[in-house]
Amino acid sequence: MVHQSWFSYSIKRRYPYKWYTPTTIVGGIIAVVVLSIINLASTGYNSIVIYSPDPNATVAQDWYKGFPLLFDAINPTCQPSEIPLDGHFQTNNSALTYTLGQIARNPVGAGAKSDYAAAPSLIYKFTPLRTCAVSEIQVLFSSIDRTAAQFGLSSWGASVQSRVSCTVALSLPDDAQPARINLTTTYDLVPETVSILTGLYTFNGRNKTAQPSLYWGEVLLANNWGNLTQTLNRQKPFALKTKGTVSFTPSGLTRNVASLDYFAANFRAIDYGGDDVTVILRPDWGDFVIAADSFAKVAEATIMADLGQTDWGVRNILSDPELLQRFFTKGVIGPNGAASNILDGTDGIEADPPVGFGGSVIATTYLCQVPALKGWANLIISLIVADLVFLKVLWALFNFVVSLVQSRHDAEVNFCDGCRNRVHHDRSIILSKDRQAVAVEGSIGGDSIHDSVRYERLNS
Fold first, then answer.
1. Nearest to 249 by CA among 311, 367, 161
2. Residues 289-316: pLDDT tens digits?
3. What is the pTM of this model?
4. pLDDT tens across 184-236, in order?
5. Cα–Cα distance between 91 and 304 in angstroms, integer?
6. Adjacent-strand bridge partners of 250
7. Who contacts 185 (Cβ-Cβ below 8 Å, separation ≥6)?
8. From the centroid of its chain, how far is CA 427?
9. Which residues, 6+ apart, have CB-to-CB distance to 102 below 8 Å?
10. CA nearest 91: which of 132, 120, 119?
């Protein structure tokens, strides 16, 4: 007796369809291409972590996003950036530096302003700053408590401190409404950190072509700083004064930024008269009031341009050539005898200066997870192995369907070629004998019984 193993093998037989071979070849090529794309997404990439200044641009590089169910694993993602209270930042314009103050957010379901809740930090993800407003601008001046480097450049120093509030959308799932943030910023052409090596304070993003309005903002700030300190040195009422401040707040009387009624001013100064120190509330300082007012208005215009507020109900000095000329003072001597606009060494603004600025976002970095293509050797091996696995499954499924259809039309679908030929040979012998028997029976008349037997034999 021949031994029979537990394992078996299938009997092969050619399909009797003309369309089977071309369909298999064309379908196989298409399957290889499609499977290679799918396997490239699923096994051809490694996820790496990078820092990006623009999460929107990083995520937009994903060309698989049209098929989220298949390629979700390699879609690049970026986490929001957290800016703490008292944290410092700049906008994408790289001009002024801001300090983050209070953060008030309105939770879902809250409508009144009284429902706003304080937040410990700003969860931010590249959303534009909107509806910004300057609430106060303080012009500070001093001739004491300054470093030797500052005295070497100017006997008087001046700075402008501003308080701003803006609306910004938070990157939190439970925040349907944006938050309101308070910011502070300071400008001083000759700050405490000044030295012979570092020179005067300048904007990081100074570019007359790409950011013309902010370029003129820096020029006007430096020019008005020089005009203010020069006025302090020139006027006799300041001979005994050592420091003071002028607080400017929106008066609400007019939207004409060129008017002296645009701001409401509040004065404070310290007056040394011998051994006495007197705090003066409302002195008559003449030209100093106009110089400080212009300095504050230029600071407001620069802040609004830096924050991207293109339409805030007031003509921005930096986007209006006429106002640019009006708020530029010729003949100003800056620190250490610098020229009029202090930064460029010119004595005026060109007749038709380029102006313009756009929206702004907070400049920060975002932690992003992005796909990185594997090395070519690993990539090719991964694709070959994965394609072979899926092709084998598709091949088995295709053969199963074709065999199932064939079995419904061919009772001998499971016969091997030899068995099938033997059956056909036996049937041909039986048919030959039956024909002879029919012929004999026909010659003697036959009967119905012989006919039924013949019929059964022909179909056996």
1. 161
2. 889 999 999 999 999 999 999 888 888 9
3. 0.75
4. 999 999 888 887 667 778 888 778 888 888 989 998 999 999 889 888 877 65
5. 11
6. 263
7. 96, 97, 98, 99, 161, 162, 164, 303
8. 79
9. 85, 118, 181, 182
10. 132
Per the structure block, which two tokens stand in for 418?
């030899």
Structure tokens that stand for 82 in this block = 């957290």
Query: Residue 247 has which token pair?
Result: 């607080």
